[in-house]
Write a structure and sequence with these properties.
With 213 residues, the chain is of the alpha/beta class. It contains ten helices and six strands. Helices cover 45% and strands 16% of the residues. The chain has a six-stranded mixed beta sheet with strand order 2-1-3-4-5-6. The longest helix has 20 residues. The radius of gyration is 19 Å and the shape is globular.
Length: 213
């Protein structure tokens, strides 16, 4: 795409804007999103498109690998921690969704490390996925097919990020009080299916099964 393509896209959006002017103008007064969505920066993962949500429904944080760094009060500033704090303590979202996806480049890099030494921030960031890789290898064995290791790592990473987000005092306090719900999802980019982690059965199940009940 070139700049002309983006300009045409914005022209089409303004048509949508005019048709939904009343609801969109209400957002000028402030946002009240229903959920915090933490997803991967991968261009194939489009939260609003995947969930058919409207402007104002989701507060979205996207980063490489949909990772959540553990809480550290003295840590250098980073956008993910700031976004979590703002969503939970200022916007008072009721739901947190941590959504991984299949064929994740970040998870693949755990098995095929980056060799470009200039990618210093990326290499450091990917350390947040190492525990998921270790768990996958312990479960399937180091000589398991790479595709199976990757699919399991992607899901185990989501579970690890849930553990990490609960280290944030504001998140943990509201979660323990029952005022905040945390969900682990995995999006299949081959089918469009989303699976959710069921803490009662310790497995990922199709999200559409929830809507049928």
């Amino acid at each position: 795409m070139n700049l002309e393509d983006y300009a045409e896209g914005n022209k089409l959006f303004r048509t949508y804007f005019k048709k939904n002017k009343e609801s969109l103008e209400k957002l000028v007064k402030g946002q009240k999103p229903k959920a915090l969505f933490i997803g991967c920066s991968d261009s194939r993962v489009i939260p609003d498109l995947m969930l058919h949500t409207n402007p104002g429904d989701l507060f979205v944080i996207r980063n490489v690998g949909n990772f959540v760094p553990p809480f550290k009060a003295d840590e250098d500033f980073h956008a993910t921690a700031s976004g979590i704090e703002y969503a939970v303590s200022v916007l008072n979202v009721k739901e947190i969704i941590i959504c991984g996806h299949t064929h994740c480049g970040a998870c693949r890099c755990l098995y095929e490390p980056l060799t470009d030494t200039s990618l210093v921030h990326t290499q450091k960031w990917l350390e947040l996925g190492e525990s998921a890789k270790t768990s996958a290898i312990l479960s399937l064995g180091a000589h398991a097919p790479l595709d199976k290791l990757l699919r399991l790592t992607e899901k185990l990473s989501v579970m690890k990020q849930i553990e990490n987000i609960l280290t944030y005092p504001a998140v943990n306090k509201r979660f323990e009080a029952g005022d905040l719900h945390i969900h682990g999802w995995c999006y299949d980019i081959e089918t469009g299916l989303i699976e959710y982690y069921n803490a009662d059965t310790y497995e990922f199940l199709p999200l559409n099964e929830l809507s049928s009940h």
